[in-house]
Write a structure and sequence with these properties.
The chain is α/β, with parallel strands linked by helices and 147 residues long. It is 41% helix and 16% strand. Helix 1 packs across helix 2. The chain is globular and about 40 Å long.
Amino acid sequence: MRDVESLGKTFRSTHLNLLLSSLSPDDTHTNMSPSKFIKIAIVGTGLIGPRHAEAIINEPSTVLACIVDPSPAAEAVAEKLKCALYKSVKAMLASSDKPDAALVCTPNHTHVSISKELLEGGVHVLCEKPISVDVASGQELVNIPKS
């Protein structure tokens, strides 16, 4: 069991490092935090979301900005993680907790619409696999122009 847990931590660390490699505190993107920390949100608090949140909390160059999830169970997760909770991406984007980046950890069929909303809101995105349930909807993300 310990080997599986270790592998999971390595996988989450790799995900986070992948996201961080596309960002840096001196990133010229207009929505980057001026501080030395990269603000990251977790969208979805099912099985993997809280695990990614723990990886963010344990990474010295990042801060968990908030979590986004409409589920009543998300309140307990936000309380445990000591972070803000938003019921929608729209509410989060309008808040003072708007992150530099977000990890999308929601059901597969929501990946495209949520990622698209985040990208259009100026937030860098790392999406859990699969990125989409079909090629056509995945192409929508590829076609979003970079800001």
